[in-house]
Design a protein that fits this description.
Layout (H helix, E strand, L loop, with lengths): L1 E5 L4 H20 L4 H20 L1 E6 L4 E6 L2 E6 L5 E5 L12 E5 L5 E4 L4 H11 L4 E2 L1
Parallel strand pairs: 5-8
Antiparallel strand pairs: 1-2, 2-3, 3-4, 5-6, 6-7
Helix pairs in contact: 1-2
């Protein structure tokens, strides 16, 4: 069975995507001097940031026994058996807000994965079902 939990995209990704598109579209409409460069920039901004914002999911795969974070074109995995602790990491700017809180999945040695999901409690409970002696701090 595979469990998918929707990830949370950082606010600055959304801001860069929206502001970048607004600038390039504004320049295309009102300043048609360098159309090729502007189109190249518009496509570039969308190729880099749109997949990260749209494809952001954490997958717990029972078949491979891994936790996999898919973010845009990037993919990061950690074995469930290697996870020793789940640590909550509050935002430095918004200390009292759970909205910006991240989870660190600490593994053996220096192995770790930083995840930001919309439903943190679901991720924690799913991992605790699969690994009984998992420490949450």
């Amino acid at each position: 069975m595979e469990v998918k939990i929707k990830g949370r995209s950082p606010v600055w990704y959304w801001a860069f995507l929206i502001i970048g598109n607004a600038i390039f579209i504004h320049q295309l409409i009102f300043n048609r001097n360098n159309v090729q460069s502007l189109l190249f920039g518009l496509i570039g901004v969308n190729l880099v940031f749109l997949p990260i914002v749209v494809r952001n999911v954490v997958v717990i795969d029972d078949k491979e026994k891994v936790v996999c974070q898919k973010m845009g074109f990037f993919k990061e995995k950690i074995q469930i058996s290697h996870i020793k602790e789940i640590q909550r990491k509050p935002s430095k700017i918004f200390k009292n807000s759970k909205l910006f809180e991240k989870l660190i999945l600490k593994g053996t040695g220096k192995e770790y994965m930083l995840v930001s999901v919309k439903d943190q409690e679901k991720l924690i409970s799913e991992l605790q079902q699969r690994k009984k002696n998992l420490k949450v701090s």
